[in-house]
Design brief:
The two termini are 34 Å apart. By secondary structure, the chain is an alpha+beta fold. The protein is globular and about 35 Å long. It has a 6-stranded antiparallel β-sheet, covered by helices on one side. β1 and β2 (51-58) form a beta hairpin. The chain is 33% helix and 38% strand.
Amino acid sequence: MKRFIMIAVMAICAIGVWAASPKLACAEFIEKCKRSKDVERVVISTGTDSYYRSVNIENNPTLLGEMRRAVEKDRKLASNTVESYRGGGEEESVILNIPSNGYLINIGLSVRGNGCASLFVEGNPGAFK
């Protein structure tokens, strides 16, 4: 009987961990930027059917490096990745699709040659629970 209870508890814990939403480095980066004077703009939109966060920067190589590291960290969770390059590297973008709780979380990074970059995280609110 003890063995059965132990197996049941372990199964419930495993299901809880499996169903938990991923901890996203990009979402954490945007949250960190909310009160930073180094960013151009942060947008936060939450509704019953949508969750959206974005941050824009201009001419800040330090923050751009942090953005790129966050995207690379979240890339490991992605089931699909789309990359595009234009003008010989003058513009680049990457979009990640990360499955979570039966929904997709989309993460996008756009970098332009003039030092501007934007990062967004969006999806159904159920994906983040």
